[in-house]
Amino acid sequence: MDKKKIYLSLSQQNGFENEYIQKALEVNWITTGGPNVEEFECKLEKYYEEESFVTALNSGTSAIHLALILIGVKAGDEVICQSMTFSASANPVLYQGAIPIFVDSEAETWNICPQNLEIAIKDRIKKGKKPKAIIAVHLYGVPYKVDEVHAIADKYEIPVIEDSAEALGSCYKGKKCGSFGNFGILSFNGNKIITTSSGGALISSSKEAKERAVFFATQSRDNAVHYQHSEIGYNYRMSNICAGIGLGQIKSLHTNIESKVINHNFYKTIFNSIRNVELFEVLNEDYFSNYWLNAILVEPDFSNSISSESLRLAFEKENIESRPLWKPMHLQPIFEKHPYYGGDIAKDLFEKGLCLPSGSNLTCEDKEKIKKVILDFFKL
Ligand SMILES: *Cc1c(COP(=O)(O)O)cnc(C)c1O
Question: Which residues form the active site (predicted)?
């Protein structure tokens, strides 16, 4: 195939990364921690303005794992988790030997449904165990129903881990995603809104929590001259080289988000006139999405010639990548034996949904190609 491939979302360098990587090499700090890591944390703490303490880690997954550890989740404990998400939200619950309890989405933000969340909490308490934590996700950059979800968490005094891996730059009522939970987590994986190649961060509201996070992330070394350990340790700290990439990347956060919003408006113009398609959008002005990935729901016709899968194949023919939404966790072989509360909203989203190319580096030419596939597909 000679057509240039158009990807779902690729990382984009801005040229500032080199200077920081070079600095790490010059001072010969090529291991974890170090000056770039501290500066990167500082930049993120400034970005979050209010009292937030950021721990830079080697992935978003390790950030979720450390949040569970800091909350005190142990083997046999129950943790509520949004079902409609990437498996990295739920896997760390299993690392702890804890039991994930999955909750359906609501149709407006596609995120954890407050009603089913409360039903789940009440039922788990009735069955004898109060959930130890709630993992809520801002899917594809769109904030979950923050007020409702946190009101329920507060009512039952259950800490919230806010999985903001896809939502750096998103806001709810003007407040930045990542700062609502008892712990917030970010991912700087290769395809996220900014990248450190691989990386993540844990956001907490106290210095002590950050110190504990660094302690666990660096093999839980006790205060001694020799290597002494009284607790299980992890190798989760971000490397000084990766943080250098992050320091370069963070300069482009705003322009990346601007491009993502422009991409979103491009899709909005196209899909406005297509009856079978609903573009995933924020509910109202309280919500601001970074539109990390644009997603649509395709209402199938009777013959099934129109469906999310046939549209995906039409894109594939033109060497354009599109992808089904995350398959809900309660439908995954590894998780399906765990309790689930809700109906078929997440399942329905999965069956009808498709993620579309949304890179911040999509060119006009790319967009023309994408548009042509869509218009031809719907015979417009
Ligand atoms: C990417 C992602 C993560 C995990 O981040 P990694 O840095 O890849 O470990 C967690 N949750 C969600 C929703 C994600 O999209």
Answer: 192
